[in-house]
Amino acid sequence: xxxxxxxxxxxxxxxxxxxxxxxxxxxxxxxxxxxxxxxxxxxxxxxxxxxxxxxxxxxxxxxxxxxxxxxxxxxxxxxxxxxxxxxxxxxxxxxxxxxxxxxxxxxxxxxxxxxxxxxxxxxxxxxxxxxxxxxxxxxxxxxxxxxxxxxxxxxxxxxxxxxxxxxxxxxxxxxxxxxxxxxxxxxxxxxxxxxxxxxxxxxxxxxxxxxxxxxxxxxxxxxxxxxxxxxxxxxxxxxxxxxxxxxxxxxxxxxxxxxxxxxxxxxxxxxxxxxxxxxxxxxxxxxxxxxxxxxxxxxxxxxxxxxxxxxxxxxxxxxxxxxxxxxxxxxxxxxxxxxxxxxxx
Length: 345
Hints:
This protein has eleven helices and nine strands. The chain is of the alpha+beta class. The protein has a five-stranded antiparallel sheet with strand order 1-2-3-5-4, with helices on both faces. It has a two-stranded antiparallel ribbon with strand order 6-9.
């Protein structure tokens, strides 16, 4: 049993979960998953079945970060929709047996692809996997928030303006060294803010390939995970966030497709992927695509900086991985500046 972050006393947790999940069997094993930089995630093996527990990390946390209650809320709401999600069982309060808020969901069997180049797959499988990711993203954005009870899940309108302001504050609160490219990028985003076009949908916020569980043998998504950053927002934020992977290199914890021959691998080009999404949602061409990409890169860099800051504070979920990601922040910020034609001395 791994006990690096939380107080995981099996008898107390067993009694608590049995009280709130009547069918919960005897707790036999607690195992921490190696990922989960933001919210530590554990496998709970019982005498009857396996569950997953996802928790806030201990210690002082940034405001509006680590919102496991929002993850629980959105997955519960999406049950039975065209967006596959794990079944949810229970959300605790902050004064839980492990010392922080957590929720319990089902353990979904399947495959997680950590490398977007999909080296373990054939060309045909790669094409099908990317097409399925595209399909599920479009399905999410077609969900009516009102129809699933999430009309108050976020503020409609001016999404990019609000999110840029939020992540600038988050970044500055976790800043450990001065990074010129990040400062230039923040200035550019504020000076070149896109106008609100009134488009609002549920957005995942971190819908990359390794947050999806695929069927054990089929190119079919059986669960979308890691909804911490989900909200009501602009659907192009999710699309651009996915498309970052085409431009990012594989470097210090990042997993990108830059430098690979995607045609030879059977991976769609960025333009093809965007076109497929637009066809699924009945959209014409996308204007200001560079802004959406730059915003997504900035947001990712700010998230990574938060991981670095938590590592320095001693409460990162995976300190070794967090340290490896330190150099990724200036790298991503520099790439974003190049996307929008900004040079950083």
